[in-house]
Specification:
single chain; 265 residues; alpha/beta; Rossmann fold; five-stranded mixed sheet; five-stranded parallel sheet; 7 helices
Length: 265
């Protein structure tokens, strides 16, 4: 069994044993770890992740090791919504061997909206306004935003502005519309309480007013049978799978206000 030690501040040295080791059709070895959604940002899980990344970095840089190694950290939502190995790997926080460096998060070379060519400037990333149910799906919003910004193989900039507000209605509406106008798309995190998520419904209405393309991502146990917020069509919703999400973002590049410009302006 592969083992790797790690240290957490104030915690004694321990031994890390991965959940699974997978060898894919190309012969790449993968240290696979699954975690509950609520534990993805815990200190222990982050320490395990860093230990696995360090081990992968070291072993891939070792000239005496012929095998290539990678590490996917998958949340329960990603696992539940993945029907194939590729879907699980693409939906997880994945680190792997690359030609240019021994260890590199795949976000260094693959970006949403342009899957054929790397972009050198972070300003080239499309911007997504994330709408979510504040009362029930806040944890999933944090995980989604974190993966999109850092660990997704298809990253995009998340403008994390959607939340409850004590502002008067008109001021809240003006503030949200102003922020949406700076984005390229509305990403709706579809949970299991959409029928009561009035803020999400309003934000979809604002997106329509601004000709802002929109799509939904099922989270927190929601699926194709779950209730959708008004204004979000079923065929515009996908599971939490980064390859599927990337395809939706690609579509957004030629829809609504984005159709009037070249690229992600």
């Amino acid at each position: 069994m592969l083992k790797e030690g790690w240290e957490v501040a104030g915690v004694a040295q321990r031994t890390y044993e991965p959940d699974f080791i997978v060898i894919d059709d190309e012969g790449t070895h993968w240290i696979v770890e699954g975690q509950a959604d609520t534990e993805m940002t815990s200190a222990v899980v982050l320490a395990r992740r860093d230990a696995a990344k360090a081990w992968v970095s070291a072993v891939n840089a070792d000239p005496d090791v012929q095998d290539r190694w990678g590490y996917p950290l998958a949340s329960e939502s990603v696992i539940a919504n993945s029907t194939t190995w590729n879907a699980l790997r693409d939906g997880a926080q994945t680190y792997q061997w690359e030609e240019s460096t021994a260890l590199s998060a795949r976000i260094d070379t693959v970006q949403i909206g342009d899957t054929s060519t790397a972009r050198s400037s972070p300003m080239a990333l499309p911007r997504g306004f994330v709408s979510f149910d504040f009362d029930h799906d806040s944890t999933h919003k944090i995980l989604f935003a974190g993966q999109a910004k850092k660990d997704s193989p298809t990253p995009f900039a998340v403008e994390d502005w959607s939340s409850k507000s004590a502002l008067p209605e008109r001021e809240w509406e003006a503030a949200i519309k102003e922020k949406m106008a700076k984005c390229h798309m509305l990403v709706v995190l579809v949970g299991t309480h959409m029928a009561t998520a009035t803020g999400v419904r309003r934000e979809i209405e604002f997106a329509n007013d601004l000709s802002l393309p929109r799509f939904g991502v099922y989270v927190n146990g929601a699926d194709a049978s779950s209730t959708l917020p008004s204004g979000l069509p079923r065929n515009a919703c996908v599971p939490w799978n980064w390859a599927r999400i990337a395809a939706m973002v690609d579509k957004c590049e030629s829809l609504g206000k984005n159709a009037r410009v070249t690229g992600w302006a």
